[in-house]
Amino acid sequence: MSDYDFDLFVIGAGSGGVRASRVAAAHGAKVAVAEEYRVGGTCVIRGCVPKKLLIYGAHFAEDLRDARRFGWKVPDCDFEWTTLRDNVLADVDRLEGLYRNTLNSHEVELIQERATITGPHSVKLASGREVSAKYILVSTGAWPIIPDIEGAEHGVTSNEVFHLEECPKRIVIVGGGYIANEFAGIFHEFGSHVTIVNRSGTLLRGYDEQIRDRLLQISMMKGINFRFNAEMERIEKKEDGTLSVRFRNGDPIDCDLLLFATGRKPHVDGLGLENAGVELSDKGAIKVDEYSRTSCQSIYAVGDVTDRMQLTPVAIREGHAFADTVFGDNPRTVDYACVPSAVFSQPPLAGVGMTEAEARNTLGTVKIYTSDFRPMKNVLAGRDERALYKMVVDATTDRVVGLHMIGPDAPEILQAAAIAVKAGLTKQAFDDTVALHPSMAEELVLLK
Ligand code: NDP
To answer: What is the DSSP string of 380-448?
Structure first.
């Protein structure tokens, strides 16, 4: 018999925590998971999943317009935000149910309370119950950062945006990263007047420059507005509810909704980490080793709370590797090389491996191949949007070290192509593959 109530106590039932819980339980551990909000975490409840459903909803705006060029007699259509919102939220409920079932079927005890660490092996729940565990896993994710400016309380974050009472006529989105570009596309297609306000002149830092530039160009062409190098001063709320965003260097912008998309910070506040000597990095993330172990030997952490790569599939891998290492007698680390990622903008962009700039800075000689084309469907639809595919090759070895693309279905195409990049295949291997015609993806094997 163990001296502890549980073999594993997990704090946070998001992607990483749920995976770790069920795999540890499958290895025979007695597991409990504490969650103060809903099961599923950011991705399922207020992130990737509801966002992607809104993206699908938004895309109908263009599809309905394009359909006319393909012979369909489409009457003028109205968009009803509340219908989409409620259907999306209902699907989130369904998925949350599936996550709960997973925990249930693996006999993981779900404790719907806030948990605070009181020592290396102990946790106190909001109800006052004290619990001991051989190991504790922290998987509490990250939380939106709101800039410290006067009137910031009038804005919302991605936590609230899925629950709006109505679709804003005018929206200002602060930030130039993932969430800003994805929601700019969504609200623009729903008919909102969208302005992205960014503190620098750079969107989507980390992605290949040419691909980012193409997104900016297409977004502007569609009618999304951009204010770069903007120094926000304060936000005022007028009597009629209008928000006026004031700048130190430019005219104010009035809007009905202000969305902060200014990054996310590790969610560690009030967790009691100091009671067990768990160290944090300068950025406030939990410091871990390659096995996700913190500075306290019995406490581990996975996912966004460790700020390694803020991506759901990465958190899932970390949670799985942790459970195999600690409970499966199979020490495993996560390989962070060539992790593909995408921005579900309109059109979406995706990338894996090195950007051109990274390759030029780290490799001897680099060859770049690009295909800049107008997808067949866009041609007939009269849509003046060009796709751009880019391959980065190490000229010494002929190995493909990076693939970057923007265009319809780019994330779907890149996921498959990422296997080749991860496997270290050469440009010649791409060339040797016969094209699948007619498709957009065939451009990848026809690059000259
Ligand atoms: P990002 O890190 O992508 O972008 C943050 C943006 O806000 C940057 O443009 C940054 O500017 C700017 N910014 C940061 N701090 C301030 C500030 N104080 N005032 C004004 N601007 C500021 O964060 P997001 O919030 O868009 O997304 C959070 C994370 O969630 C992402 O990093 C990503 O890992 C994950 N995510 C992933 C998605 C996907 O995989 N498709 C979708 C959505 C989120 P600067 O560049 O100058 O620092």
So the answer is: HHT----EEEEEEEETTTTEEEEEEEESTTHHHHHHHHHHHHHTT-BHHHHHHSPP-SS-SGGGGGS--
